[in-house]
Amino acid sequence: MKGRGLTALGFLLIASLIATSFAAAKVQSGGRASRTLAASDCQLNSVGGKIKHVVYLQFDNTHYSRDNPTVASDLEQMPHLLNFLKSSGTLFTNDHTVLISHTAGGILSTQTGLYPDRHGITVSNSYYYFPPSKIPAFSTAFKYWTDLVDDSTGSNDPLPNMVTDQKVTPAPWVPFTRAGCDFGAISLANIELENTGTGPFGDMSQAFGTGSAEWNDAVASNAAPSGTAARARALTDYVGIAIHCAQGGGICAANATNVANSRQDKLLDEPGGYLGYSALFGAKYVNPAVCAVPNASCQTVGGLTAVNSTAGDPVTDPFGRPGFPGFDEALAKNTLGYLAQMQEAGIPITWGYISDAHDNHTSSFPAPFNPAFPRASGPGEADYKAQLKAYDDAFAAYFQRLKNDGIDQTNTLFMVTVDEGDKFAGGIGTPQTDGSLAYAHTNCSWTTAPACPTNQIGEVNMNIRTKLPSGTPGFQVHNDSAPAFYVNGQPERTDPVLRKMERDVAGLQQIDPYVSSSPTTVFERMADAVEEKTLHMVNSDPRRTPSFTGFADPNWFITGGTVANPNANPSCGTNPCIDYHFAWSHGDIQDVIGTTWVGFVGPGVATNGVDSSTWTDHTNVRPTMLSLLGLTDDYGHDGRVLIEALTTRATPQSLIAHRETVRRLSDIYEQVNAPFGQFAMDTLVASTRAIKSTDESVYNSIESSIESLTTERDALASHIKAALGAAAFAGQPLDEQEAKAWITQAQSLIDRAAALSSS
């Protein structure tokens, strides 16, 4: 919840309220026979022409591995999904996220096949940037694809939020719509509207235009009192759901109503151009479009069209208005209900996000504003288990519904993954008579109260502003277990005042009651701008590079206070404490956070079951998916095609040639270039030692070595990924001798990074 939802604060405030009652009447009823419309203009070029549909699902914080050895993991408690992935395809369980490993970054790297330095969101889910005043200003990572960093005026930073080479990052739906395929999505990062911003470069302005009826709706909603139906209305109607329509019009041209409701799909920086395309933004326009088919699983609610969830209830906001339920209410039943209805309406490409199961989703009201906020849940807790059971039921209904529609693994490519891993911060649950575990849900401050209970749950909160010595320069911090610091004035990294601040942060020791009653080191790793570049955390917008980033023990959640009171913790006053509202840390560099999973099912996918040995990461999903579909992007990926998941027939012939060399090159490329690869992790160890050093000659020597290694790494990675991409998408076989030379060079880089980390 913390990752995805807090950036959409206005919507979360609304979503906390109890939904009003409403009368619901069926729009359509009857069986499922012949309810799916043909998407005849969609030209996917899969081997044998077997793939006719694509389903992409990305969970938030959902685990393959167990968080408690006595409690079944998240996927184990969703057997309909887990068994589908294991029995019908390949499930990689040694997948990895990016840094900083948060919802926005993880989703965007999966969607684009690019690391954060190339898709632009290098710190997420929010970040700061340096305007001309050099006093850090706040921005959110969650914005529509074409929005700017400064979406209020554009004057403080005129570059795109999604930035590649100072232009808007190529959009992930483009290859599909160019191939004549409608592309529908719910709740994924930045491909639907994310907010009701009405500034010159805000979401509503980008999609509908300043002064439009929709824009005026948003102005009225934004002015309405918080916690009211009026405040929710524009969010419900326009945010979180979209259809990017195919070349030729697709569903946007299906009838006069859709034509009237569609808007220009503007991608002014798209390579090769993107003129004449349209989109439907928001449930107000998507719902009528997808429900206008025989036997649609839709209802009329208060005179408006509602799409049904897989449980048969209409998807609504908390006030009963049909439409987007909220990012934290992207429960499995809601997301899967929308994706099924889109497929049945003839939209063959459907992408969706599903909220985590380990936060209590009875409300989406952020903790600092409401003491009754329903807390995080621990492994084996009753409500956590119940939510996973509901998710499993949703998948059972979804797969059966698609099967009834003739949509299954024989003609559909399924890709299912998770945006990030996370680490449970809490004690040992107390066994209950019903077989569940119970946890203590109270704010625990060991400075003012007795020791925390052994079954305490929650992150250890600390306002770092109160722990630094006087004389520390002004700064802003991206609150996180991996906080990024932006120091006033944007000083050079060698500035002595900044260097002292880095050492002060790195040397902090505080009591972590889960570890010891004595103070322990808070930060395990440190990176300044040199190592941030190695970790793919520096993009082409120079205003957005953090002064430095700390990676803490994941029990900690580091804040910089609140706007109202910079010297207070949001939920703990002035003291460190455990906040039971949040108990799942992400963003950090530990294996439990960085390691994720991804599964592929469908024509061309090998039935390998669980693959725990192949090292992979998020950027490999897109090239693998496009290779199976016979589509291409207008840019090179940072990832590579996972030939380990493909049948021989579906593997590009130029990758079959010298297959063993291709595998070796792919493996070492991951280790030398990925944020969680060995090269990056070892240079991060060296970076930490450099930053902590009081001897500036030691600091300069290590930093110079990291900088040199990274420059060499980047040049080598550029050659390797270009060669692998050309082999996968242009039929150009690898030069085996050149590939072997690259393997040797990569191993040398890894060895030198390891030596630097241990010297």
What keywords describe this structure?
single chain, 759 residues, alpha+beta, 31% helix, 16% strand
Profile the largest sheet.
10 strands, mixed
Task: Give the strand order of the largest sheet, numbering strands 1, 2, ... along the chain.
Answer: 10-11-9-8-14-2-15-29-3-30
Output the number of helix runs.
Answer: 22
Helix content: 25-40%
How would you state the average pLDDT, rounded? 91
Regions with pLDDT < 50 over 5+ consecutive residues? 4-35, 363-372
Task: Tell me the radius of gyration.
Answer: 25 Å
Beta-strand residue percentage = 15-25%
User: Structural class given helices, strands, pairing?
Assistant: alpha+beta
End-to-end distance, in Å?
A: 41 Å
Specify the overall morphology: globular
Number of strands: 30
Write the layout of secondary structure elements.
Blueprint: H1 2-5, H2 9-15, E1 24-26, E2 53-59, H3 79-88, E3 89-96, H4 103-112, H5 116-119, E4 126-129, E5 137-140, E6 163-164, E7 167-168, H6 174-178, E8 183-186, H7 203-208, H8 213-223, H9 229-238, E9 241-244, H10 256-261, E10 263-264, E11 278-281, H11 283-291, E12 298-301, E13 304-307, H12 332-344, E14 349-354, H13 382-404, E15 412-418, E16 423-424, E17 430-431, E18 437-438, E19 459-463, E20 475-478, E21 484-487, H14 496-506, E22 509-511, E23 519-521, E24 523-528, H15 529-534, E25 548-552, E26 556-559, E27 577-579, E28 584-585, H16 591-594, E29 595-601, E30 609-611, H17 621-629, H18 653-656, H19 659-673, H20 678-692, H21 696-729, H22 736-758
Parallel strand pairs: 2-14, 2-15, 3-30, 8-14, 19-26
Antiparallel strand pairs: 1-12, 3-29, 4-5, 6-7, 8-9, 9-11, 10-11, 12-13, 15-29, 16-28, 17-18, 19-27, 20-21, 21-25, 22-23, 24-25
